[in-house]
Amino acid sequence: MGLFKRSSKQEEQPKAEGQGAEPRHVTGEDFDAVILGSQLPAVVDFWAVWCGPCRAIAPAVCQLATEYEGRVLVAKLDADESPEILARYGITGIPTLIYFKDGKEAGRVVGLTGYATLKGKLEKLLN
Fold first, then answer.
1. Is residue 12 part of a domain?
2. Global pTM value
3. What Rg value do the Cα atoms of the chain yield, rounded?
4. Tell me, what CATH number does 57's domain have?
5. Taking residues 27-41, what's their average pLDDT?
6. Residue 40: which domain range?
7. Is 3 part of a structural domain of the chain?
8. Rounded distance, CA 15 to CA 61, Å?
9. How far apart are CA 91 and CA 102, in angstroms?
10. What is the DSSP secondary structure assignment for residue 14, as one 8-state letter?
């Protein structure tokens, strides 16, 4: 059993209307290669289909993927599918977004927050 309770009803995370780029979906198997090995800074959204706040923050994460396409790797990792990655980073609540630079954690946001906060943290990472 994973760290978080899974609903028996399988649903996809909502998508922002008119979005361009989509976040890349990563798993525990490819996390190190894709995220830690990325030449670009990365932001990973740790989420689950049953998590209301995760669903609410999804459009902001998609907006980051669109706005920073080619400059930042924006990714999503299903908390229920990869509990070992959550344990590695001490994640006990979702949504959690972790910002990575040069393969190391450079910041995080825990809980539901607005696009301006997510973007501001990303801008600091890029400068």
1. no
2. 0.84
3. 13
4. 3.40.30.10
5. 96
6. 24-126
7. no
8. 9
9. 20
10. P
Tokens matching residue 15: 């998508």
CA neighbor of 24 nearest in space, from 67, 79, 61: 61
Per-residue DSSP letter, 35: I
Q: What are the CA-CA distances from residue 56 to residues 4, 12, 48, 124 (Å)?
A: 18, 13, 12, 24
DSSP β-ladder status, 96-101 and 42-47 = antiparallel
Look at residue 93 and tell me if it is in a domain: yes
* Upstream peptide bond of 53 is cis (omega within 30 degrees of 0): no
| Residues annotated as catalytic (active site), given as ranges | 51, 54
Q: Are 97 and 46 in contact (CB under 8 A)?
A: yes
The answer to the question of residue 56 being in a domain is yes
Look at the chain and report how many structural domains it folds into. Answer: 1
- Residues shown for the chain: 127
Per-residue pLDDT tens over the stretch 39-66: 999 999 999 999 999 999 999 999 999 9
